[in-house]
Amino acid sequence: MTARRPLFASLCIASLATISLAPSSALATEYRADPSTFTAMIPMLRAGDTLSLAAGRYTRPLNITNVNGTATNPIVITGPASGEPAVFVADPGACCNTVELRNASYVTVQRLTIDGNHVSGVFGLSAKDGATNVVHHITVQDNHFRDHDGSQQTVAISTKAPTWGWIIRRNRITSPGTGMYLGNSDGTSPFIEGIIENNLIENAVGYCMQIKWQAPWPSVMGLPMGSTATIIRNNVFIKNDRPSPDGARPNVLVGGLPASGPGAANRYELYGNLFVHNSTAAEGLLQVSGRVSIHHNIFVDAAGHAILARDHDRPLVRAWIYDNTIYRTATGIRVGSAPDGIIVAGNAIFATTPIGGTPTTSRDNLTDSVANATTHVTAPSVTLGMMDFYPKAGQCQGADVDHAPFASDLDFNRDFNGTSAVPFRFRGAYSGEGANPGWRLAADLRTTTTSPVTDAGVPSTDASAVADSGSVDPPATDAAPRVDSAAAVPDSALSTDAGPTPGAGAGCQCAVPTHTIKRAGFSQLSLAIGALAVAARRRKRSRAMR
What we know:
By secondary structure, the chain is mostly beta strands. The two termini are 24 Å apart. Helix content is 9%, strand content 30%. The chain is built from six helices and 38 strands. It is globular, with a radius of gyration of 25 Å. The strands form three sheets. The chain has a 21-stranded parallel beta sheet that branches. The chain has a 15-stranded parallel beta sheet that branches.
């Protein structure tokens, strides 16, 4: 018995924060938990571990605090791969955000249903508290965020701390007040070097997504100092006619960059996205400033503009707008001015005013009326499931469009379907004619072939893609009977979307509730005893085999 006493004593006094079934450096561990036990598991997670959550209704918040994996061994918190989901429900007393990240890195949150329960002010997934909270390399994937619409300021995914290296992919966000609000309204919490891909955000009260402008960056260890890109690709952004009590908003807004210092040379790349419906004449589907590339997207049905590129909270620095398809908008593309130039090229635009403002270069665009779109594309429509903007045989084509300026962009040589766009003779988002071989436009997640992104958010450019396109012709005149219009809509008629969203806040501000520790005390001790007992048996078997 005396030989067993040290083990028994260790079982009684062991701290749950240090217990693991196996050393993380030697063997990753999968923990399993349910609504009554999951809070005890969080402090136990080490690099490479997985926490598998059973199906059920979770009424306590998921606080991911001081949880840090590594680049090669991230920590995964996951719901079931199939069957009934693990559903985290917003606190009806508006105590706390449903999933909160504090001082966490290299963590994946996946396969959860996060139910806002129509509660005002409770965010779905949040990282808040500014520069005091270091949260980087977080992957949020394959989740369903629903009913975060207690107010326009209630957000499904929110970051109000300096964040970098986030991947937000394959999430469904339905009926939010705001779908994603990344960064803070005062510019102090930059969202840097992110990948936002293959998400569906539909029926938002305000923005489907906004990435806030950036003031000079705070001093936070680990921020990427080199030039990086945030990639926004293959998403579906849909609005309906819900009223916006705090002011109308575009489907997506991307803010500007710091005037100097770290981040000033960064950029945004938006491609392969589907934007559908905005009924506010002063707003539209996409508004951008900073340094942006917008290519191979489809924009449908706006009372205002499809794309507005101009100074906002920060200046427009450079805009490359090419190979997009735009249908039934008041203005197709409207631009201000930018010191590093604005190129509008290779687009197919069916709008009342195809192009407004004065781009530095406007060339090789197909522009025509909404009524004449049927001449050029298969099934122009504003109804999802019926619309098909693939070119008819012999249509939407002309002399090769010079893509040399865009060769640094990721997937500049792939069309909306992810297939080769070389040679660059087609206008609009598709490169092909006849029957559309790709994804049918719908209110659904979409998949397509895309290039991997390096840690710096920069593609490995294959310069041969441009060389293979053949000789470059001089800029061609637009292939349709309409000419580019530079001044059809005065700037005074456009919404300035005047800055910070009022009262956006950071969701609930409560500290981690102590009841999560008290309720789980017995379960924690039981798990600790079981864990060490298993470890002891493994050691005994190991000694016997020597």
